TrEMBL record:
Domain DUF1468: 10-144
Record's signal peptide: none
InterPro entries: DUF1468
Keywords, ordered alphabetically: Membrane, Transmembrane, Transmembrane helix
Pfam family membership, one: TctB
Transmembrane segments: 12-28, 40-58, 78-109, 121-139
UniProt feature coiled coil, ranges: none
Protein name: Tripartite tricarboxylate transporter TctB family protein
Amino acid sequence: MNKQFDRYSSLFFAILGLGFVYESQFISKSSYGSNVGPDIFPLGLGLVLCILSLRLFYETFGYKQEKKAGTSFDVKRFSGILAVFVLYALTLEALGYVISTFLFLFIAFQLMERGNLGKTAMVAGIFSGGVYYVFVNVLEGSLPGFPEWLIG
């Protein structure tokens, strides 16, 4: 952990979180047929981002003054996950939430730690299906579940 990097990044993410909260106020509060409006996700994301940023900033005061020679960043993994994330954003509407989220999580987990395909598929499937179920059935929101070409 780099104390200076963590402090600056926590301030950056706190400002970004405040921006999410501020801009979510301009999104409509509800949509047709849904009790959960499109403003909930950016508002929640902004609040979580602010809270985690403040926690990280607070934790930097407890860092010991250690100087390590050059911390190497794993650019290959980071680039892979960034590319998968861009593909996820581009294919979300075409593949639907469940399939695109499952593929995104499966590939991202494999990029972080190779092996154990069954466990990775199970976690990705439970997460994507669980979030879809809770958002659509419990919160009565709307998500593009499956593509039209798949369900007919």
